[in-house]
Amino acid sequence: xxxxxxxxxxxxxxxxxxxxxxxxxxxxxxxxxxxxxxxxxxxxxxxxxxxxxxxxxxxxxxxxxxxxxxxxxxxxxxxxxxxxxxxxxxxxxxxxxxxxxxxxxxxxxxxxxxxxxxxxxxxxxxxxxxxxxxxxxxxxxxxxxxxxxxxxxxxxxxxxxxxxxxxxxxxxxxxxxxxxxxxxxxxxxxxxxxxxxxxxxxxxxxxxxxxxxxxxxxxxxxxxxxxx
Amino acid sequence: xxxxxxxxxxxxxxxxxxxxxxxxxxxxxxxxxxxxxxxxxxxxxxxxxxxxxxxxxxxxxxxxxxxxxxxxxxxxxxxxxxxxxxxxxxxxxxxxxxxxxxxxxxxxxxxxxxxxxxxxxxxxxxxxxxxxxxxxxxxxxxxxxxxxxxxxxxxxxxxxxxxxxxxxxxxxxxxxxxxxxxxxxxxxxxxxxxxxxxxxxxxxxxxxxxxxxxxxxxxxxxxxxxxxx
Lengths: 228, 229
Hints:
The complex is a heterodimer of chains A (228) and B (229).
Chain A: E1 2-6, E2 13-18, E3 23-27, E4 31-34, E5 38-43, H1 47-58, E6 64-69, E7 74-78, E8 86-91, E9 96-100, E10 104-108, E11 113-115, H2 121-125, E12 132-136, E13 139-144, E14 149-154, E15 159-162, E16 166-170, E17 173-179, E18 193-199, E19 201-206, H3 210-217
Antiparallel strand pairs in A: 1-2, 2-7, 3-6, 3-10, 4-7, 5-6, 8-13, 9-12, 9-16, 10-13, 11-12, 14-19, 15-18, 16-19, 17-18
Chain B: E1 2-6, E2 13-18, E3 23-27, E4 31-35, E5 38-41, H1 50-59, E6 68-73, E7 78-82, E8 90-95, E9 101-104, E10 108-111, E11 115-118, E12 124-125, E13 132-133, E14 135-140, E15 142-147, E16 152-164, E17 168-172, E18 175-181, H2 186-192, E19 196-209, H3 213-221
Antiparallel strand pairs in B: 1-2, 2-7, 3-6, 3-10, 4-7, 5-6, 8-15, 9-14, 9-17, 10-15, 11-14, 12-13, 16-19, 17-19, 18-19
């Protein structure tokens, strides 16, 4: 499998070239186009319960599509829902990577594990609508952002990120979520919370967030007429 | 203090680098991330007073808040990153004493305390088009961070220019303005879809945004389900 990320950072698209028998799993709705010798099968990965748990906890879609190439040099094009960037992360066996659930686009590697039920989940529950997936290698995961993907090195002094802007972070970082001052989210949950990171690692931040756009658009909606 | 802007034109992010004791005041919804050695004072309104700010908050296009957070660095090498809600660019104008800057309300993002933000320019509400417009007046010395919806263009004005109010970001105080109709009559103005225009005269700098937030809001908002009052 080879991949390229085209039109980064504003309108990124993932181009994969698959050889015969190679497999990529993608979020439902992520496919843009493909060559004809790639078969699609739709499944609830992890069985019905696993899929339902991911749906409830992780916020990603219940279904995932498995793309299997029937011959060499077949292309598959994938994109995230929002305008923005895409990145790939290669994980060694046993290496973990934390991904905001809506940022997941696709992965390769039969042994890669996507888990919503990990030790740190509870602290993230305080942010309604904000869930992290733990991705465990070996394999490659592709993830997307709304806006640019900004990489930050977290040093010993720590780093604070608005939860709506967190896309991903590396293992061995400690984190805790707290309320942040100011009137941030008058209408939408998940705004007004920040995550404090400490330890040593990297965090990827998206430069826009969907809740912010929704909050901008909210006043432009028509108002329901009241009936007495 | 140094303000670095990345990812222009579409998805800009501003990094405000602060040394010990330096502070930046920013719109509450703008903070993306920050280093840990920063004290945050929330709802730190400007000296103009809370009552006016409360009114401003309601007046701002798109419901953006005008609550301000004050970020003060405890040590050198701190930073705060800031971003607007909509896609587009950010731009910094270095304010000189004596040359004030008039900023369209929702275009203002951040400034240090050496910049005074005044709200004496009252909002202007067009009774026909429903467009509202108000300016913040920035005076003093220091950088003013502004955002645009879409790309931003800076023009040197010497003479006269007519601009749709929804495309205005800011202009320097050497420019006089009047607000008027786009066409001869009010009805023709309304039908033209251009609503209100600004007639700008004089000499100075003018920043224009390539998209109009209200137009975007109305276009998408009309497709969304109705909300509770």
